[in-house]
Amino acid sequence: MSDEESTKWVRVSTDRLRRVTRRDLLKLTAAGAAGATLAGVERLTGPYIVHAQPRELRIMTWSHFVPAFDAWFDPFARAWGTSKNIRVTVDHVSFADIVPRATAEVAAQQGHDCYFFIAPPSQFEPQVLDLADINQEAERRYGPLVPFVRNSVYNPHTRKYFGFSDNWVPDPGDYLKSVWANVGYVNGPRTWDDLITAGQRIKQRHPEIQIPIGIGFSQDIDSNMATRAIMWSFGSSVQDRNSNVVLNSEETVKAVEYGVRLFREVMSPAVLSWNAASNNLALNARQTSYILNSISAYRSAQAQGLPVANDIFFTPALRGPARAQVATHVMGVWVIWRFSRAPDLAKEFLLHFLDNQRDAIMASRLYNFPSYWGSVADRDVPVAQKPEAGRRWIRSRVFQDPFGSLPPDKLKVLADSERWSTNVGFPGTANPAEGEIFDTYVITDMFAKAATGQLSPKAAVEEADRRVKEIFAKWRRAGLVGGGRDR
Amino acid sequence: MALPREARRPFSTSVAPLRRRTLADREDWLGRLMLAPALVYVVALVGVPFALALALAFSSARSGSLEFSWVGLRNFWTILPDPQFHRALWNTLRFTLVSQALVIVLAVTAAHVLSAAFVGRRLVRFLLLLPWAAPVALAAIGWTWIFDSTFSVINWTMLWLGLTKRWLYWFGEPQLATAAIIIVHVWRMFPFATVITLAGMSAIPQEISEAAVIDGAGFWRRFFQVNLPLLLPIITVAVLFGVVFTSTDLSVVYLLTRGGPYNSTHVLSSLAFQRGIFGGDLGQGAAVALFLLPVLVVVAILMLRTARRAEVGA
Q: How far does the CA of residue B184 sit from the closest CA of chain A (Å)?
C-alpha cells in the first residue's frame, strides 16, 4: 500500500463499545439532520388535507396618548375581523418609534397592511398606495374632508392621495385659571403679547412656579408645533402656497425676536429640553401656568384625580400681528403599503373605522376630532347636511363634556378649533421637505439658538434658511416637492 | 515450503476493514466547515450591513423609497461643511475620551477597594455590576428623570445640602447636558472596567507585592511602580472595549437629550439616526455614520495587538 493510498484509506476499530469520536459525532449529526429533512419532506409531500388560508389584516397604530382609546380600538378591529372571518392583528408602537418602524418595514418590504402616523408621512409616498378611491368614497358618504386635513394626505405635485385620515387633534392653550386670574387674566391669554405681559406678573407673584410660561423650544413634537404657531401668527412660514421657500423674511425675524423675549423674560432653559411629556407634567405639577398642547394634560390630571384638573382651562390659538393659527396637535394619517398583502381588506377596514367615528372620538375622550365632520353626524341625515350636523354633534359634546369636566363647558373653545388650526406646511401642503425640516428640528433650533444668544435672530433665520433650502432642493430632485422660486 | 497455520490465516480477520476517508478525517476541510457558521454570522450581520452602509453613503437613498441612485461624494460634500456634523464629531471624541479617562481612574480605585477583604464585599461587588447588567434603554430613562430640567432629584438634593444656589438645567444647557451624558457613560462602563481590572489584579503574583513591601515600598510606590505597570495590558483591553462601546453608542444621547439643546449634544451615531431615519435621508445618514469607521479601525487594530501582547505575556 503506497503512502498516497494511506491518506485515502484508514483502518477503523472493530470495537463496537468504543468512545464516541469526532467522526462519530459528525456522522450522528449528519444522520440526524438527514432524517429530520426527510421527515420534513414527508410532511411536505405526503398526503394532507388542504385548508383555505385564513384571511388576515395586520394593523400598526400608535399607543394613543389617551390609553382608553386603545382599549376600545383593539377589540373593535378584532370584532370587525370576526364578523368577516378575518384574523385581525393590531400592533402598537410608541409615538417616537412610528417613523423608525415604518422605515424598517419599507426596507424589508414587509410588515403591516395599514400603518398609522401622527404626522403626514409624505416621505413614504413612493411606497404607499394611492388612496384616492377610499378618500372619494368617504366624501361620498360623509361630505368633504376638512381642508387642512386634505393638505396633509394629498400631494398636489404628484396628484396622489398618499394617506387616509380619520382624525386630527386640536392644539389649544392650557392654562391654570387661578394663576392667570390672579394677574388679571380671568380667561387666560388671547394674544402672544399676553404671554409676556402676564408671564412677568406671574413670575413676580408666583415664585413657586419654576417656568411661568411653558412653550417648548426643544427637539420634540410639541416644540415643533409651538414654534410654527408663533411664526404663522407673525405672518411667517417655511414655504408659500406653491412650495416655494419663503423662510428668510422680515416676519420670521420678528417671530424669532418675539421668541427671544418670551424665553428671556418668562421662561427658563427647561424649555430647551422639553420632551413630549414635559409640558403635561409641568402643568399638572403647577410648575408652569400655560402650555400649548392638546387636552391630554387635562385628561391625565382627571384620570389621576389630581386637584389641578379643576384649575386647567383652555384658550384658542393666540393672536399675533398677522393671525391666530396653530398646527394640529396630531394629524392622524393611515397609509397602505405597496407591499401590503391585503390592501382591499385594509381599505374596507378603514372605511368601517370611519363609519364608527362617534365611538372612536368618545373612546378618545374628545381628544380626537373627525377629519370628516359628517362621519359623526346622525346616520339618517342627508349627505349634504352631514358636515354641519357633525359639527353640531361635536359642539354639543364639548359644551357638555360627558367625561366629568367642571364646569361642563370647559372644552368649549374646541368647538371653533377648525377655524384656528392648520397643517404643517401651511399655507402650502405637507410634503417630504416640510417633514424633514420638522423631524430634524430646524425651526426649533432657529428659535433656541436666538433665545440663548448663540446667534442673533437674523443670523439664526439665515442659518435655518440655508438648511431649509438644501432640504427642499433634495426633495425636488426626488420629484416629490414642487415650487422652486425660493425667496 | 508450507507456511505455519497462523501465517496462512487471512490478513483481514485480525485487522479492521479499510474504508474511504471521509470529511471527518480531513482536518483542513473540517476546520473550514466548523468555522463556516461563525463566518456566515459575521458576514450576514456585520459584513452585509457594512457593505450596504458604504453603498448607501454614495447614493441618494431615502427612507420611503427603494430607489438607489449613485451620487458619488455628494453626501460627503454636504456634511463636511455642516456645523452640526462638526459638533457631532467633536462630541463623539470628547464624550469617549473624557468618559474613558474617568472610567480608568474609578475602575482602578474600585478594584483596589474590592480586592481588600471586608464584610459585605460580595454584596458590594454584586451592586457594582448592576449598571453593566441593566438594559441601557431602561437605565437611560431612569437617568432622564434624575436629570430632568424641572424635577431633577440631583438639584433638589444639592439645593437642600446647600451645594448650589441656582437650579441646574441639566438638559437645557449644552455644558450641563454634556456633563450628564458623560456621567451616564461612566456609570455604564465603570463596572465592566472594574471587573476586568480586578481579574488583572488577581493574576499578579503575591510574591511581587510582598517583595516590594520588604524592600520598603509604600502604597503609592507599589501602586505606581509595581501594580500599575503589571495591570497596564489588561486596563488597555478594558479601555479599548470602552472606547468602542462609547463612541458607537446611540442610546444614551438619543434617550437623554435627543441631541439637544439645539442639536448641540449629537454624536455621530445619533446625528446619523436623525438625518437618516427621521429626516428620511438614508444616504446622508450613512455618510455621517461612516466617519466613525477610521476611528474604529484604529481602535480595532489596537485591540487585537493588545490582546495578542497580553496573550504572549501570559
A: 17
